[in-house]
Amino acid sequence: MSLPLVVAITGATGVIYGVEMLNVLKELGQETHLIVSEAAGKNLEIETSYSLDEVRALADVVYDNKDIGASVASGSFRTRGMIVAPCTVKTLSAIANSFTYNLVIRAADVTLKERRPLVLMVRETPLHKGHLELMSRATDCGAQILPPMPAFYHKPESIMDIVHQSIGKALDQVGIEHNLFKRWHGDNRKEQVRESLRIAN
Where, by residue number, does dimethylallyl phosphate bind (predicted)? Predict the structure, then answer.
């Protein structure tokens, strides 16, 4: 049986990344342990049609963000890593400075100290120098900074295609197999040109 993955949803715009990640992981049969910040609960109402109870129901285990005594607050509780989707700059700042004032930050800090994958889907733009320095500092501590930046080589046809590509990139970092988007296997246009020339000749 695989180890659980910790998923945290914080109050940046883009809560759909965290919600859809839970949907995907549920379909994949991956155990998830969820922490939802207070601000994320408000954003669910603003940005989605999901209720907080519906999102919590997608996870196997749910923790209160104030519960510093939760299992994920200890390094002795084994997990395969943690993804914060989306990650606010406030959360990034606390993680970069080991300021463990709530369970999201404590769980992230534990993930780093145990040398497990920590993926931060930071949602803010434009970025000033302070934001960039926080990202650099978190990276120095072992975090993976993965802003949900859309790609187009897989030719997305919907917003959810774009969401899935970013989620897939995050799942790649924690070693979870998926088929959320078409991967790049090289530019075959040259081969197509050669074949056209061969037929023409």
Answer: 153, 169
